[in-house]
């Protein structure tokens, strides 16, 4: 599936989702469109360093961004990595694009092409030093590997002989390691991320919606880490006398049913998300 210019805009299956989409269509200049990266704009691949945005993602976002208040990519990756893997730098039409990396701790915007980031949490360095030794103690965990994320570390089990068993076995020991150094563990699709507390996509999204004074919001994600953003949209819907209408999009549903059950619109993966963004841009 590619970015088909004839593909119609799909209809959300819930009343709240239909209200959210209607608000975006009525006042696009006051709408924020927020998107996860891996699994939403880019297919999940065994090596995250090889992940790249779907070929139609940048053209779709470039068509959409000038018509809305902002397009925000909210990701657990470092902002600079997401910009590089997304191909977002130096693209005409992306003046309204921001990338909120490390769950909002880092920020890149297309206008300045500059990443703003805080100093790393000291616990990350301590965990970085201890983590290889923790993994090496157990032969059954062979095949797992560590992704360096600057402000966080991630342990992937997708390449292990039994990926789910390795994931389940690691949750406890990695949780103990993280807690000793003031970090938390964020589970995902066969990945466990050790990162500082207080950073999540819900906090980042709610803050950005307030910053832009948005009157409607769309959020698209695919993994457990996106549940916080879903909760933020659900809360925004109830704030104030009328709330802020929102549309929740799930990219794929097989691996993370918790997300699919709360979504207003189910799309089968990044190619379909790109088609949706292109169709939305054409409607605005």
Task: Walk me through what this model shows.
The strands form two sheets. The protein has an eight-stranded mixed beta sheet with strand order 5-4-3-2-1-10-11-12, with helices on both faces. It has a four-stranded antiparallel beta sheet with strand order 6-7-9-8, with helices on one face. Helix 6 (201-212) packs parallel to helix 7. It is built from nine helices and twelve strands. It is 36% helix and 19% strand.
Give the helices and strands, then pairings:
Layout: H1 15-26, E1 31-35, H2 57-64, E2 70-74, H3 79-86, E3 97-101, E4 106-109, E5 114-116, H4 122-136, E6 145-148, E7 153-156, H5 163-180, E8 184-187, E9 191-195, H6 201-212, E10 216-221, H7 227-236, E11 246-251, H8 257-260, E12 265-267, H9 270-283
Parallel strand pairs: 1-2, 1-10, 2-3, 10-11, 11-12
Antiparallel strand pairs: 3-4, 4-5, 6-7, 7-9, 8-9
Helix pairs in contact: 2-9, 4-5, 6-7
Unreliable spans? none
Mean pLDDT: 91
- Please tally the β strands and state the result: 12
Q: Major β-sheet, in short?
A: 8 strands, mixed
Structural class: alpha/beta
Determine the number of helices (DSSP H or I, runs of at least 4 residues).
9
Strand order of the largest sheet: 5-4-3-2-1-10-11-12
Terminus-to-terminus distance:
23 Å
Shape: globular
Strand-residue fraction? 15-25%
Order of helices and strands: HEHEHEEEHEEHEEHEHEHEH
Percent helix: 25-40%
- What's the Cα radius of gyration? 19 Å
Task: List the keywords.
alpha/beta; 284 residues; eight-stranded mixed beta sheet
